[in-house]
Amino acid sequence: MDVLWDSTEPLTVRQVGLRLTNRDLAHTTVMTVLDRLAKKGFARRKRDGRAWRYQAAANREAYVTELMLHALDQTGDRSAALASFARRVSDSEAEVLRRALESIGELHRD
Amino acid sequence: MFPLVLVLAAVAGGTALGAAALASARWPYRSPGAAILLWQALGLSWGLAAVGALAALGAVPGEHGVAGGALSGAARAIRSAALGFETPALIAAARLAVLAASVALFALLVWVLLAASAAVLVARRRHRILLSLLAHGDPKVPGALVVDHPAAAAYCVPGLRSKIVISAGTLDLLDSAELAAVLAHERAHLRARHDLVLLPFSALGRAFPRARLACQAHATVALLVEMLADDRALRHRPARELATALLRVGTSGASLAPSGTLAAASAADAEVAARVARLLTPQARLPLHAQALVCCTAALLVAIPVALLLFSF
After folding, report:
1. Residue A47, helix vs strand vs coil
2. Distance CA B68, CA B172 (A)
3. What is the pLDDT of residues B131-167, one digit of tens each?
């Protein structure tokens, strides 16, 4: 997926395989992975002569944002899918808490 | 059978009142585990009593408790409707209607739970796939995944293949001791499967967003579960690390979502403040006899409607 994200143009299976220099992967393995990514909607593909050309469906940032929105429970749907460590507090409360944080810090720096 | 209806209705009403009282009580902060048990018992008891009260209204008295009586009540009502004797038609129709309402309520509660479980599984699956594409390991947080994003987030994806996820923003924000405390907290969630505890309450809260009590119950149990994980983390890490980690994550940076999360923020205020206060000035756990009392109450709460439904008195 990183290869697709780093490329500006759609790539064939062979091109993706060549760019995966750190691993020695069989052509069919790369093909299977790309095919699966396409089926899950992460990659788009179109015919180019006899080969398929693959392209990322959305850029990396879009997926990171989706991940984080879900993680921070800001999609408006408070399901129990994930358990967040701490939710973000409002600005006024943040001020109070920051002062508390400073006082703890001073307490233990003595 | 009329008194039985009243008793069951009283149990349903009583559990609702008890839940409202428990939501504003402060002792649960001292023993979150016992309080969660009581919440579960209240929820189960309420469901059984509410379904049972409707069933009892349509049941034939004196036959193997409400469950048996409801069956013969339905059979008798259908028979008399078909043959036109024994019971006046109006009563037969009323009996059937009440029994149908009872079945519908039961089906609704089961459906709500199943639908919520399915939604959670789908959301987690998508999240796991995205993580496998985007996240990477980091030596600073062994065993956890890191997502490159400046906002502070730390959470776990429960399940058979559970994951702990830390954002790059959190890595910058916290020192190594605080990170270890966060990891201990998240591991406690995963090990005790706190998500399963929370699921029925979040399902009710989502299904009835207008019902204040359902949402209150969800928020309260969610907070208690966090406190339980805090307590577990304290076995391995000092309280101060966890408290400062909480404060730093809670007060960090701007929110991702543009607007519409104000209500959530004000609720989060109280939650983070309560957890920090609890860590910095720890209160003694409830004495053993008080905890035993809570557990007995929970057992009784479930036993009473079950006994009323199964046995005739």
Report:
1. strand
2. 63
3. 888 888 888 888 889 988 888 888 888 888 888 988 8
Rounded CA-CA distance A7/A56 in Å is 9
On chain A, the residues whose CB falls within 8 A of the CB of B157 are 81-82
Name every chain B residue with its beta carbon within 8 A of the beta carbon of A85.
Answer: 153-155, 182, 185-186, 245-246, 249
A62 close to B (CB below 8 A) = no
Query: Measured between alpha carbons, how far is B264 from B116 in angstroms, rounded to an integer?
Result: 20
Computed over every residue of chain B, the mean pLDDT equals: 84
Contact A89 B250 (CB under 8 A): yes
Which amino acid type is present at position B109?
L
H or E, element range at B259: none
Residues of A in contact with B273 (CB under 8 A): 89, 93, 96-97
ipTM: 0.73
| pTM of the full structure | 0.82
No. of helices (H) and no. of strands (E), chain B: 11, 4
- Residue written as token pair 């392209």: A55
Q: Give the mutation candidate from A77, A88, A93 for the B interface (greatest B CB count, under 10 A).
A: A88
Burial class (CB in 10 A: 0-12, 13-18, 19+), B224: buried
